[in-house]
């Protein structure tokens, strides 16, 4: 009778595959890269890969899912590249800060005032011809003529001496001053400063101790002794860090005291027009500029005019630029600004675009002409000061710097990420003195109407608002936003997540390492040292490794034997022993069945032969059948 084999339910492909892998690892066999890749495809959380790794699908079906996966991956890469380009090309956005800044945190602007007259006529007429003083005078007034080059040594001390003696001092320029309703002595709150217009007077500027890196280098503030020395104490202020200590009425730079004309700065200016000798303009009066307390002003190019015989009200609007800390990691070329810790100035301690441009201009003129202009930064006392003989050279350098299309000589100075600037709004009226009574105490001592009309100017400087909003540079697309966009696109197209990335890392690194270690441990435990034993185990796995846990082999007329009775037992040659036992069982069962068939067949045949002879044989049986 033929054997009857039971029909078993098929197992899922990934379950059978995982069992095969575990069996291989158990017997110390090496798992190949293809098998590892297939296991990853069957178990990963990325959509679509499990269909590629399922061998039960046809080749056409697997190819369909493979091509679909490639197309979807390409689409996700395309959209992610667009997000990355946006992140890199425009990472910065400038917006209005929702939190306004109170004026108690804003310094009053530094106010620099110059008389349009650069040299007093009285002092110029005392200078003899063909002397060193005349050469310096020609350089200051930009007068062409015969230059006494042999006597001109270009020493800063000589130029400084002439500027201090031949220009109008602050005590003569400023007749009366007041700040925040308090009358002040002008020489106490103003100090002299060298600018491109000669000797000028500045209010609320940062002290030279904090403005310049080298205290011994020549600076723009000449030392003058006044009655107010020591009355006001200098403190540090920077646009990025603010005040180093709490400001008070006895410190400077001063904060904005309040709003309105009475809480601002008021002053009476005297041009002394009769003493004019040379000027950079064709009119009489004053030049005034409002700037950051840490900057050196450029009067010639950017100052505003204050005519004589006028009363002027100037409303100041502070403009504040700041930045978020998140943009510090963005490159300077992209954020287009410089933080304080990134500044690399040699002369100034506090970075600003204006200070950077002045320092750059001084270096270019020194490199190309061998000298510097008297008002530019000088690192050393013996640096040569340019005369009119060098005018052609330094004027060409200055024109090249100012010409924005020029690339050979240029000063590329980015603005500071934190900057303060002040926008003036000037209104002017005719100054009238002596005709009627007025409440202005600053003009109390002025009685000559004609002199006031030809020489004096009254100036008020104040703010009108208590709060001002700043313009803040922030991240348009930060790393968190970029990561969110990329994660959304990957999740939409592929179902990819951080866990998916961890899976990739695991199957590439940790999985092979652990499998190798487990293989070594198995080989050592079971003593698979011989290639013959290893080959026998592989053959046995090939023949019997995929059997279901319970397999019944039933022959009709015989009892049932179960393969579970011959499960793998621990021992040295367990696989070989099990294989031999199975073979013995199979041979034994077949021999028993064949013996039964033969016995029944022979008995039936003998009975038929006996009936054929007409008698039943009682004699001994035939030897053949026995």
From TrEMBL:
Membrane topology, record value: Multi-pass membrane protein
A Pfam family per the record: ASC
CC terms in the record's Gene Ontology section: plasma membrane
Compartments reported by the entry: Membrane
Domain of life: Eukaryota
Transmembrane segments: 64-85, 489-510
GO molecular function annotations of the record: ligand-gated sodium channel activity
Primary location group: membrane
Record carries keyword Transport: yes
Keywords from the named record: Ion channel, Ion transport, Membrane, Sodium, Sodium channel, Sodium transport, Transmembrane, Transmembrane helix, Transport
Keyword Transport on entry: yes
Family membership: Belongs to the amiloride-sensitive sodium channel (TC 1.A.6) family.
Name by which UniProt lists this protein: Pickpocket
Organism: Anopheles dirus
């Amino acid at each position: 009778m033929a054997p009857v084999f039971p029909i078993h339910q098929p197992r899922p492909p990934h379950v059978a595959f995982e069992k095969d892998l575990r069996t291989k690892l158990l017997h110390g066999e090496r798992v190949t890269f293809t098998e590892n890749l297939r296991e990853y495809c069957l178990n990963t959380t990325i959509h679509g890969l499990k269909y590629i790794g399922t061998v039960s699908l046809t080749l056409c079906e697997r190819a369909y899912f493979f091509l679909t996966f490639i197309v979807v991956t390409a689409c996700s890469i395309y959209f992610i590249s667009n997000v990355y380009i946006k992140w890199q090309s425009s990472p910065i956005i400038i917006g209005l800060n929702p939190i306004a800044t109170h004026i108690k945190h804003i310094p009053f602007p530094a106010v620099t005032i110059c008389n349009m007259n650069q040299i007093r006529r009285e002092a110029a007429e005392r200078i003899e011809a063909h002397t060193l003083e005349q050469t310096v005078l020609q350089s200051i007034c930009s007068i062409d003529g015969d230059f006494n080059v042999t006597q001109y040594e270009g020493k800063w001390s000589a130029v400084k001496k002439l500027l201090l003696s031949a220009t109008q001092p602050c005590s003569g320029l400023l007749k009366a001053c007041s700040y925040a309703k308090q009358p002040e002595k002008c020489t106490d709150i103003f100090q002299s400063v060298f600018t491109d217009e000669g000797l000028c007077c500045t209010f609320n500027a940062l002290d030279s101790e904090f403005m310049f890196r080298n205290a011994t280098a020549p600076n723009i503030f000449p030392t003058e002794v006044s009655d107010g020395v020591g009355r006001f104490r200098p403190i540090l202020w920077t646009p990025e860090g603010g005040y180093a200590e709490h400001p008070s009425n006895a410190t400077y730079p001063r904060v904005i005291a309040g709003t309105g004309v009475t809480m601002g700065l008021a002053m009476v200016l005297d041009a002394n027009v009769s003493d004019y000798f040379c000027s950079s303009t064709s009119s009489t009066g004053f030049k005034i500029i409002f700037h950051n307390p840490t900057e050196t002003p450029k009067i010639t190019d950017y100052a505003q005019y204050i005519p004589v015989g006028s009363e002027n009200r100037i409303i100041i609007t502070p403009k504040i630029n700041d930045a978020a800390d998140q943009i510090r990691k963005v490159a300077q070329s992209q954020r287009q600004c410089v933080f304080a810790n990134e500044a690399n100035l040699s002369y100034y301690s506090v970075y600003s675009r204006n200070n950077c441009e002045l320092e750059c201009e001084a270096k270019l003129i020194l490199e190309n002409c061998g000298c510097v202009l008297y008002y530019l930064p000088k690192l050393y006392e013996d640096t040569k000061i340019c005369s009119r003989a060098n005018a052609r050279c330094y004027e060409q350098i200055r024109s090249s710097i100012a010409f924005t299309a020029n690339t050979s000589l240029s000063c590329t100075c980015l603005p500071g990420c934190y900057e303060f600037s002040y926008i003036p709004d000037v209104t002017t009226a005719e100054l009238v003195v002596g005709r009627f009574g007025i409440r202005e105490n600053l003009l109390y001592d002025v009685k000559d109407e004609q002199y006031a009309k030809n020489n004096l100017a009254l100036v008020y400087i104040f703010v009108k608002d208590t709060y001002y909003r700043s313009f803040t540079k922030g991240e348009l697309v930060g790393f968190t936003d970029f990561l969110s966009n990329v994660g959304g696109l990957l999740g939409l197209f592929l179902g990819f997540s951080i866990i998916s990335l961890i899976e990739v890392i695991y199957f590439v690194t940790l999985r092979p390492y652990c499998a190798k270690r487990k293989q070594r441990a198995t080989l050592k435990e079971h003593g698979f040292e011989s290639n013959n034993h290893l080959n026998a185990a592989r053959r046995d796995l090939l023949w019997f490794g995929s059997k279901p846990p319970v397999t019944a082999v039933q022959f009709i007329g015989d009892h049932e034997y179960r393969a579970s009775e011959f499960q793998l037992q621990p021992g040295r040659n367990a696989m070989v022993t099990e294989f031999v036992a199975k073979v013995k069982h199979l041979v034994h069962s077949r021999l028993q069945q064949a013996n039964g068939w033969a016995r029944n067949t022979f008995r039936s045949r003998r009975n038929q032969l006996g009936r054929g002879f007409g008698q039943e044989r009682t004699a001994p049986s035939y030897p053949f059948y026995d």
